[in-house]
# Entry
Amino acid sequence: MILDYAQLVKWRREFHRFPEEGWTEFWTTTRIADYLESMGFEILLGSQIIHRDFVRGRNNILVEKALVRAIEYGANQKWLDKMEQYTGCVALLDTGRPGKTMALRFDIDCVNVDESKSPDHLPNKEGFASLNEGLMHACGHDSHITIGLGVALWISQNKDKLNGKIKIVFQPAEEGVRGAAAIAASGIVDDADYFLSSHIGFCADSGTVVSNPRNFLSTSKIDIRYQGKPAHAGAAPHLGRNALLAAAHAVTQLHGIARHGDGMSRINVGVLQAGEGRNVIPSFARLQLEVRGENKAINEYMTQQVMQIAKGIAIGFDVAYETEITGEAVDMVNDLELVKLVEEIALQQPQIHEVKDDYPFNASEDATVLGRRVQEHGGKAIYFILGADRTAGHHQAEFDFDEKQLLTGVNIYVGMMQRLLSH
# Structure
């Protein structure tokens, strides 16, 4: 394989400098597309891979600002014109020989964290710290982009040895589980026989691979907005309609939802914003909350209860309301054939000394939306964890990871492709 560690590091550090949050990854997408085109891939963008009806949590104001910034940073206008203001891309390669179809997924967004200014922080030492204030690749998605490009380069150099089709999904807006639903609904992975995805670090250190994380939680992220009527709080409070009171009552009732008897369920209201001033009957309020469930059915139960309460409160307080699902993920069980294959290939890597075949994930990841979509169409899916030492926890300002694991990740994906798609 004509791919060295130095190239992976170069890619990773380039993307680390230009972090972009979910649905605003315009520079990131165009740069990925530039590299993929040079490798000979067909590039799919915009409505080719995004079903707009399933886009979650996309902020038009942030999108417009990010477009301006991306152009300032030199984003390729050719790709921007084709994106229809929706980020992410899919690289497609058809070998021209009959065989299986494989989909790989790598997420590309950053988190809303201001990167550490400490001189001991490696990105500061080596000059590749974030250029965008308040944004940072503090979850390792810059490594995921890099691994995806490394795999793409190997494919381009070895396509004559492969059969079938390969689709590499560079997915926007994983944070807040906002991006996968729109890509899944586009149907782009419906023909996939195999679906592979992973995360670096998380619960595993360098030299370790978690081949079969379990307990992926279904989740829905929901916004509730109440609109009342302002009035003078002293002279004419009876003329107002109090949106703040409506929201406050909603919070207590939401947390009082009866938990499901068939499995674990969760709810948390994380944000309540309301009101204009101390002497004004509050005319607006906004809640940001999430529900989770051990499986899709339990999560749907929790979501339905939230919607009923939101409506009932609006009626009781005579205020208008609207709800919006801003993110979603589902539960997924890895297919054992792929679990065993990941274990076998991981242990062939000299730097891997341990494979854990069972780990309670107990969180949500929207790769599951794509994985479940593939499984429901008859394919097989896996999500595994590539261990990497970290300088701080994910989503922290001091976060960095062991870059040597970039090559480990590429080699595991390449090994999977050699076994599943080779002549």
Q: What stands out?
A: The first helix runs from residue 5 to 17. The longest strand covers residues 218-227. The CA atoms of residues 55 and 141 lie 20 Å apart.
